[in-house]
Amino acid sequence: METRYNPKEIEAKIYQDWEKKGYFNPDKAKTRSKRSFSIVFPPPNVTGTLHIGHALNATIHDVLLRYHRMKGDKTLCVPGTDHASIALQSTLEKKMRKEGVSRFDLGREKFIERAWEWRQEYGNIILNQLRAMGLSCDWSRAKFTMDPDYVAAVEAAFTYYHKQGWVYRGQRVVNWCPRCGTSISDLEIEHSAELSKLWYLKYPLAENENEFIVVATTRPETLLGDAAVAVNPKDERYSNLIGKTAILPICGRKIPIIADPAIDIEFGTGAVKVTPAHDHNDWQMGQRHKLETIAVIDQRGKINDSAPEPYRGLKAVDAREKIIIDLQDRGLLEKIEDHNIQIPKCSRCSTVIQLLPSKQWFVKMDILAAKALKAAKTGKVKFCPKRWEAAYSSWLKEPRDWCVSRQLWWGQRLPVWFCQNDAEKYIVGLKAPQKCPFCKKCQMTRSEDVFDTWFSSALWPLAVFGWPKSKPDLKKYYPTSVLITARDIINLWVARMVFSGLEFMKKSPFKDVIIYATVLTKDGKRMSKSLGTGVDPLLLIEKYGTDATRFGLAWQITETQDIHFNEDTMVSGQKFCNKVWNAARFVLCQLGEQKNIYSQTIKPKPITTADRKILTGLAKISRSTEKKINNYEFGHAIRELYEFFWHEFCDAYIEAAKNQIREPKNDLEAKNTKAILIYVLANSLKLLHPFMPFITEEIWQSLPLKNKKDLIIEPWPG
RNA sequence: GGGCAAUUAGCUCAGUGGUAGAGCGUUCCGUUCACAUCGGAAAGGCCACAGGUUCGAAUCCUGUAUUGCCCACCA
């Protein structure tokens, strides 16, 4: 053995050997227990490459998987990738824009072909990178969210919801990304705080155009679509104006002055312009007061033909400029104040979101959300750390109906069929009927819309096991044991998986949800490729080896919300690997040429104080490691193991052993010491294996033990 | 506007009621038989601040400050 541990030579070799022997597939490997331990790995987007968050996640997954495999459980981890509808489409369009091509130049069919090509080329990169992390999942079960059986699951879920009466189609004000050309959900919006203005606009009264009602607004361009002015019914300043009529500046339309309790008396002037077409609140107010919905911004974010001629075709921001100037010219701009607002932006492309009325498909959330909420309340779903339950619950308490349709091309199409002669007539079903039930003559055409990406990911823990078909995997491995994911998708993904699982399988898809910390830079900044602040896990592996990288990541896993990434822990990992390697070298050297005669299970009898100490120490660390892994305290587990191995075993016992072997007090002592050395080493390797699988397996292979299997499937000590 | 978290040695972090800890870094010493990716030793902290509970507080409570992150239809 070399004096230094060299990970590069052995990692790939060992991984292939494990995979070839079928250890990652519980159907191939004989297991000692009937209990199953299953996890579905959160499917990375096909656009992605491995980042430090994935590496951390893979480490946690693999620690649990290897621990449970050694405990004898039928252990399964299903990997896969997500088609990532909007993310991939947006990435692809960005690339095409450089070539000077738009998706409309290509057309839907060709565009989808290109998306598939992309997926062929890049789709599995990240899965291969996860192999490099040592992740022991069953590659033969890998799924993609656009596999035919997966698409079938998505369609089945939608038609089921429809049968329940929970699906409706309707004209609503939705978040619209003019760049992506689609509706998006509230959860796909990112707000950026910006300093803007509050404009005070004077609306003349119809009775006397020299009198005004002043409204305050942050979006003057929506004036073109105003349908009313609203005040609070308790606001005495305006009580004489309620029911009167104002004249909408520039447009000249007459609009009513209405009373609505939703208006905040304190804000601005207490009078609000109401634009039902371009604001959620105003939409609702419009419904209450039966106001006209006048859309003036189109799907490209430009002013449409419902607006007066001079504004048509202007971008919303430019229209704002012009309107302010025009109002000023007419003396209708009272004042401007600075005002902090939250600008909604598309989380995919950062384009400013427009709110506009559009016909979309919704899934009612009341019943589903209540189920998911109850699951957390009754402890059927537990968050770790516990505090994340609040994030989950607070969103589920006031759910808005889920807009599941997207005007994208890449994704699973809605199983909805329209009559060609009446666009309002449709049926929901898995296949188009032979004959249109409405006009009796047309060939019905399928909806152009695709599903929200998260509608399909919500089914991940079911669909990977073959749902809606009744497959053996579904019986054996559903529900899964634990979900390990990042906090930013608690509502987007976790909550939706929970209610999908409860609805379709009557059981929550997992019991425990581990929310791991967000990895930030050392300075607490967001890691980002474009800022150059990201850390590439593959470079860490290259530099320190996989085991050292995993050690370093595990070391940093505590209950914190954020990790300020510190590469020093990888250095510690590398040194620790070397320490383990050399301790093994020493032990093997002491044992000499003897062939597999030592026992790893029968505890040698202690003779000296040092013997007693180390054997007690081993028993203690075994119990403690098990407990900490069961409690998901990975950082503490590895810190303790490190402490034990380095200081108790190497510093104390090996040093004592040198004397006991060289100058034994009796015949037995030297021989017994050797037995203790290998016993403690063997069991330490087992405890370390979930964290550092490669080096431990490599050393294990050369230990002269009786009845030895590969370490990955050896029984857990204790 | 609401919520969550963080604040401990130069750096990154452990430490949840009983004399302040680790890794890295720094200084000094040590290469003869597992390992210099090592061994030994040392320096370095009024545990953010202010109150309170307690025999005793980094730890529990209240408040303040700074930072970060979520959620929210205040125009």
Helix content: 40-55%
Q: How many β-strand stretches?
A: 25
Count of separate DSSP helical elements: 22
Give a short account of the largest sheet: 4 strands, antiparallel
Query: How much strand content do the residues show?
Result: 15-25%
Would you tell me the structural class of the helices and strands?
Answer: alpha/beta
**Poorly predicted spans:** none
Instruction: Sum up the overall morphology in one term.
Output: elongated
- Overall radius of gyration: 32 Å
The spatial strand order of the largest sheet comes to 6-5-14-16
Distance between the termini: 30 Å
Mean pLDDT score, rounded?
Answer: 93
Q: What would your notes on this structure say?
A:
This protein is α/β, with parallel strands linked by helices. It has 22 helices and 25 strands. Strands 6-5-14-16 form a four-stranded antiparallel β-sheet. It starts with 6 loop residues before the first helix and ends in a 17-residue tail after the last helix. The chain binds one RNA strand of 75 nucleotides through strand 8, strand 12, helix 8, helix 11 and strand 25.
Secondary structure layout plus pairing:
Layout: H1 7-20, E1 36-40, H2 52-71, E2 74-78, E3 80-81, H3 85-98, H4 103-106, H5 108-122, H6 125-132, E4 143-144, H7 148-163, E5 167-177, E6 182-184, E7 189-204, E8 212-217, E9 228-231, E10 245-247, E11 254-259, E12 271-274, H8 280-289, H9 316-329, E13 333-346, E14 354-363, H10 366-377, E15 382-384, H11 388-397, E16 402-403, E17 405-406, E18 416-418, E19 426-428, E20 445-446, E21 450-451, H12 453-457, H13 460-463, H14 472-477, E22 482-486, H15 490-505, E23 512-516, E24 518-520, H16 537-544, H17 546-555, E25 562-564, H18 568-591, H19 609-630, H20 634-662, H21 667-688, H22 693-701
Parallel strand pairs: 1-2, 3-4, 9-11, 15-23, 22-23, 24-25
Antiparallel strand pairs: 5-6, 5-14, 7-8, 7-13, 9-12, 10-11, 14-16, 17-21, 18-19, 18-20
Helix pairs in contact: 1-22, 10-11, 10-15, 11-15, 16-17, 17-18, 17-20, 18-20, 18-21, 19-20, 19-21, 20-21, 21-22
This protein binds one RNA strand of 75 nucleotides through strand 8, strand 12, helix 8, helix 11 and strand 25.
